[in-house]
Structure formats: structure tokens, C-alpha cells
Amino acid sequence: MTTVGSALEGRARAWLVTALAFDLLLSLGIYAALRARGESAARAIEKVGAFRGTALADRVLEDSWHPMVLAYRLKEADRNADMYGLFFNDRVKWLYPPSSLLVLDLVPDSAWSYAPKSEGETPSYLVELWMTWPSRLICLLAILASALMIEIGLSRLDPEPPRRPAARVFRLLVACVLGLTFYPLVFSYELGQIQVFLNGFVALALLLRLLDRPVAGGCVLALCALVKPQYGAVVLLAPFGRQWRLALGFFCTFVLGLGASIARFGWNDHWRYFQVLGAIARGGEAYWANQSVNGLLNRFLGNGDPLVFVENAYAPFRLAIFLPSLAVALGLLALALWPVRRNGAVDGAYAATLKLASVIAATTMGAPVAWEHHYGSFLAIFALALPGLARFGPLGRCTGPLFLASYLAVANVILAPELWFWNRWVGLLGSHLFIGGLGLFALLWTLRGYQPTRS
């Protein structure tokens, strides 16, 4: 006789295998199409997002670390220097708050001796020596934490917890392979982004919250907010989600970090950072990798070239872009925080983690600039949602296909944007990470408010 528990195990396994199979088929289809266009085999492989997992064996680039090191060395040379002069005067896209530089205090002196001595040099040796392996490990941590959340979610929702170790190991292996083919996560490592640490910490925070360790989860998210203040939106879960312990852990850690940053770098740079945020929000980016409403509208309205990344400027301000972007950002956050009648069959820690994941997804998609590697944290959110969606199917038979479509839209990328952006209408499809993220957000919303039919 088939029990609810064994049926849920089988359904979760089927979803994972189906996602991996379609991801492979999609990747092979992209590869074949690129080869048909005349691309060499090597170039075609490079342009298939799911194949970029091999990048974990290579040395990273320096997308985040270069401007961070420039700002850090500027303050080291002169404590009274204006670090955001790099942003406003030198047109360096130095986008993080001063508190993000605290991590560079941990760099060994032996590594700093090889760091750049002038603005024209890059911190390649520093990154290679100190950042590569930590970045690899945190990327693998995000994958493992996501895989574990599937198993923990199944155990929380199964009336009869899984008893077959072989089936559990199989699911864990499939989930890890999916993680290695999840382009936004792997690319954050390849690009040399501090975002790889944020993606890993978000996955860890969700895992801790699912394990009913809200204070520890809040502390981890505060570390993310010291690099990207948008994660501070999770404190709203205190009044709107009764997650006071998570907010307490967040607040204490953030205040300590901010205090250390002010003591280290002074008040002025922290106030100046608000001007940086304003400049980014006013313009945003038209480049195709900006997977947000801002990016979509900039491209659709012709407010910049989607195929060219401008290194020293943002898109021109347009009210018709700024206002809808702001409205969508506030709308997503309001929906994420909106109180819904909780499904009585859902474990309390699982329900609270779903709401936390909704806030994180909303703040990611609602940002004026949401690069594709910012969606690396969505691997953990997909993993969190899978057990609940497979258990309850809140959209009936459409639940599985929508989950699969959303996953494929976020997990894979055709790294040949000219195929999308030759026409502004076709170019809408080029925002598929954002569209897939909206699909996942909708699934989270329906799952949080789903009420089983009573017979």
C-alpha cells in the first residue's frame, strides 16, 4: 500500500530528475542551435549557462574585488579620503557600503604585499591567493545547504518520514548536480563577485531558519546586509511575521558590524553611500544581464544598448522607468510580508522560512539592478519550496510544470544576447531570469496561503 509519505518521496524524486533531464535537454538544444549558427564547439559550450559549472576549477575574475581593493587602499593611505570619489569622480562602479570592506581586514599581510600599488593594476594575485578557495567552498556550501533543505522539508511535511537511505542519497546527489548546473550561482564565482558569499550565506540562513535556529539565521543575514543593505528588509518580518528572534539576531549583528565600520572608516563615507544608492536607483542598467523591472523597461524603451555594458555610467533617468520600478519593488515586498492564513498541515518553522524566502526573493527582484548572479540565492529558494509544492500542489496539476518552467528560466542562460535583443518585443524574453523569479515568487505565495480541502 502506498502511503502519503512514500508518495511524496517519489514525487520529489520525480521533480528533481525531471528538472535535471530538462536542464540537460535545454542545454544540448542551445548547444546544437549555436553550432548550427557556425559557432565552434568550444565557443558553443562557453555560451551554455548550465555548462559553466566547470568554472569552479578555474581562477576567478575580479569584478567585485578590484573596486573594493581600490577603495580599501585609498582609505589605508588617507583616513580622510572620500572613498566614493571613486564612484562620482573616477566613474568606478564601486557600489558597496564601507562596511563591506571589513572583510579585507582579514586578508593576510603576505597577500597584501602582492596587491595593486596603483589604480591601473588589478588585485589578481590577491584574489588568486586568498579569494579563490573560500569562494569555491562557499559556492559548494550553498549547493549542499540547498540539497539538505529538500530533505529537511520532506521530513517536516511527511506524515511518515523517509526510511530509505539509498533514496535519500540519490535525491541529494541529483540536487547537488542541479546546483553545479545552476548558472547564476556558478557565475557569481566565475566573475569574482562577493555575491558568491552572499548567495552562500542566504542559503545557510534559510537552512538555519528551517532548523528552527532563527537567531543564528538573522546573524548570517546581517552579514549579508553589511555588504548589501537591501537584505535589511528581513527585519520587517518582526512586526509582519512575528519573527522577533530572527530580527534580534539580525539587529545585534548589524549594529556591531556597522559600529565597527564607522570606527574604521568614519561617518562621512557612510552618509555618502546614500548618494550612491540614489544614483543607481535613478538610472539603473540597460545591459541585458540586469534582470529586473528597471532593466526590462530600459531595454524595451530603448534607454540604452542591451548588448553593451557601460563601465563608467548608468542609464539616463526616465520617470517612466523609475516609477514603475519603484512600484513593483514595493508591491513585491508588500506581498512577501502580507499576512496569510497559514496551512495547518505545514510545520511552523517551514512556514516561517517560506516567508523569509519570499522577502529575500522580493528584495532581489525589486532592486533597480539585479544582475544574473544575484539570482544565485534562488537555488536555495527553489530547494526550500520543492517539498511543500510537491506535497500540496497548491495550483493543482499546473504546480509541477510552473515549478519546472520557473526553475529552467532562472537556472540556465544563453550567453548569446544578440539572439534576444535584436527586437524589443523579442527582447522581453531576454528577461527570463526575472520572469522565472516571478513564477517562483507566485508559487511561494500560493503555497504560504494554501488551505487543504477537508473531506
Give a short overview:
The protein has 455 residues and is an all-alpha fold. The chain contains 19 helices and no strands. The longest helix has 34 residues.
Description:
With 455 residues, the protein is mainly alpha-helical. It has one domain. The chain has 19 helices and no strands. Helix 6 runs parallel beside helix 17 (378-392). It is globular.
Defining key terms:
single chain, 455 residues, mainly alpha, 62% helix, 0% strand, globular
Q: Mind sketching the topology for me?
A:
Blueprint: H1 4-36, H2 41-46, H3 65-77, H4 85-88, H5 109-112, H6 124-157, H7 165-180, H8 183-190, H9 195-210, H10 214-225, H11 237-241, H12 244-265, H13 267-283, H14 293-300, H15 319-337, H16 348-366, H17 378-392, H18 399-411, H19 432-449
Helix pairs in contact: 1-7, 1-17, 1-18, 6-7, 6-9, 6-17, 9-10, 9-16, 9-17, 10-12, 14-15, 15-16, 16-17, 16-19, 17-18, 17-19, 18-19
